[in-house]
Amino acid sequence: MTIAVSAVFLLGVFVYLLWRYARLPLWQAAICAAFGYYLASSSIGPEIGNGLRSVARFIAGLDL
So which domain of life are we looking at (predicted)? Predict the structure, then answer.
């Protein structure tokens, strides 16, 4: 069974948890989201995607 989870969704959950439990100010959470969109649209965005896919393949290949 394969489950596909978007990295944007995981980042959103992580920022929400930081905002909720670590008292991250809302303006800092907004800056984090804006930086994520800026980074994704930059020239390094595809390399980050390739790196995340490689990490996902490595984790999926582990025999736990």
Answer: Bacteria
Contact partners, residue 15, CB within 8 Å, separation at least 6: 24, 29, 32, 33
Residue closest to 6 by CA, chosen among 56, 41, 63:
56
**Two tokens at 2?**
């394969």
CA 64/CA 58 separation, integer angstroms: 12
Contact 50, 25 (CB under 8 A): no
Q: How far, in Å, CA of 1 to CA of 19, rounded?
A: 32
